[in-house]
Design a protein that fits this description.
Layout: H1 2-42, E1 46-54, E2 57-65, E3 68-77, H2 85-88, H3 91-107, E4 113-123, E5 128-137
Parallel strand pairs: 3-4
Antiparallel strand pairs: 1-2, 2-3, 4-5
């Protein structure tokens, strides 16, 4: 009986830590997206949409720069481990982003070129770094 109670306690503790981690993770993501929006607007981008949803897919930021639509995936980290965009975005994720962007462009009847960028943000008590990778991936090459 003692083992069963202990297991129940451990399971509850693991769930608490998981949800606490997810809350922290989601908050970090929101902070990163805010930083990315400010970064882009400071560079002259016009933000068209944030957190655009198509079915179960989500685009973090849709912006316009001159005569081009820019779809931006934001990745926020507390360490600079795994900041290579090829390691951050699987081919499936890239394909999902392209599919959602295609739906948005058709729905809004936009007749502009589109590119796919990634913004990587590393934020912690020692550093705050924003890395903007233009043309991080291309449709049809996945």
């Amino acid at each position: 009986m003692l083992i069963r109670n202990t297991q129940h306690f451990v399971t509850r503790w693991q769930k608490y830590n998981y949800f606490s981690y997810m809350a922290d993770h989601n908050e970090l993501g929101k902070i990163g997206e805010e930083m990315a929006v400010k970064f882009l607007t400071d560079k002259g981008y016009n933000i068209l949409r944030r957190n655009y949803r198509f079915k179960k897919l989500e685009l973090d930021i849709i912006a316009q720069q001159d005569e081009e639509i820019v779809v931006v995936e934001v990745k926020t980290r507390q360490s600079d481990y795994l900041t290579d965009p090829t390691e951050l975005l699987s081919r499936k994720k890239q394909s999902d982003i392209i599919r959602a962007a295609d739906y948005f462009i058709n729905e809004e009847e936009i007749d502009l070129e589109c590119r796919f960028d990634v913004i990587i943000i590393v934020v912690n008590q020692h550093q705050k770094e924003i890395r903007h990778i233009e043309d991080a991936f291309y449709p049809g090459l996945n």
